[in-house]
Amino acid sequence: MSAHAASARLKLSGTCFFLQILTIILFAVFVRYSPDTSPGLCSPQLNCSSERNPSSDSRFHHPRFRDVHLQILIGFGFLMAFLSRYGAGSLAINFLVVAFAIQWAILIQGFFYSFLNGKIYMEAQSIVSADFCVGAILISAGAVLGRVNPLQMLLMTLLEVIFFTINEYILLNLMGVSDSGGSLTIHTFGAYFGLMVSRILHQPHLDKRNQQQDMGHYPDVFAAVGTVYLWIFWPGFASATMVHTNAEPWAVLNIYLALAASTLATFVISPLLHEEGMLQMTQVQDAAVAGVAVMGMAGEMLLTPFGALIAGFLAGLISPLGFKFLTPVLSSKLNIQDTCGVHNVHGMPGILGTLLGMLLTALATADTYGNRMELVFPHVADGSRTATYQAVWQLCALFVTLLLVLLGGSIVGAILKIKRLGSPPDTQHLENKTFWEVSAEQRKQGASREELGTSTSV
Predict the structure, then answer these.
(1) What is the pTM of this model?
(2) What is the pLDDT of residues 362-407, one digit of tens each?
(3) What are phi and psi for residue 53, nearest 5 degrees?
(4) Using an 8 Å Cβ cutoff, are 193 and 38 in contact?
(5) Cys-Cys with 235: which of 155, 178, 189, 255 at CB 3.0–4.6 Å?
């Protein structure tokens, strides 16, 4: 192994040590467990209905807590594990990002939401909220996978958590936007933040000889496992912010219906787009993710069953069409290389979900929502806004998010381009074998691709 690779591993080790010591010190100074008598200390992302409805059950729900963690650790991990040259590394990167981002997000979100008398008061729901932040970070990681080393990924996580929290605070706290499932705050933000970083990291002299993505795939078992976990745990993940509310069943049912329709859409459109007409499990996986992304904002709203099916079906069509027609344009015209296709899987479905949420908001009435109006649209329920005015705020939130993505992604990308942080010119150092132990068969496969001159930088 080259001296540069050994040096990179030492830098990663030292950075991990420094960041962990730093978070320990910050936790010791600022973080305390929240007493049971402080229900008001809560992020608006968590829609603390127990404060609005004292009769609701305020006990901690471990099954929902479990669903969120399983989706983050396993669901997202296997969603990025299908590329053969980066598969093992992507799983390890997933755990690296999760382990640090949860700690860092608790701190940063705590300063925004639960900082009182010089202390951050933490409760179990604080970790759930941090997990939502981690989800956005992992989506961004999918855009730059294979183009940044683990050290750069850690620094991107450090900074992106801050920008994510700022965006979430502006949308949910200052603007009063309803986005419990994260069409904007998670999917749209995470996708376009990662794409902006990818654009800034563009290196013409390297990308000119590395135009192709790594098309070698691990066996479809990775995509199958990720898809199964998506079906089982994403409804609980997306509805975790609505725990204790009677709006929760709407979100679960809408997500399941959208999942079914988006998956079926793959079997409709994929054979028409590919000459070989063969369906890959990764395509089913991508369509399923698109289906849940479109339900992030609209899931808790009064979307009829047929409406959920239509939205899911459209999202399922968008994903393969995007891979076929838009991904080549992003790469050739805009110099944006999207490793895992987050633009098609998270970005566009997230925007579609935002527009759907805006439409449903404009149509909301007290007669149709009843007592749920206070939970879904509190500003409309208290008379401070009309439904149309709330819909305008929902749309404005999209532009605010894209503006912060443009600013934050540019800053982070510029920092990651610092020479001392960058990867070596030989892009094979971003493969699995640089930082992670891989099997002899995987090493042999990598050597074969190098002999054939197959490009692997994405």
Answers:
(1) 0.87
(2) 999 988 888 889 889 999 999 999 999 999 999 999 999 999 999 9
(3) -130, 90
(4) no
(5) 255
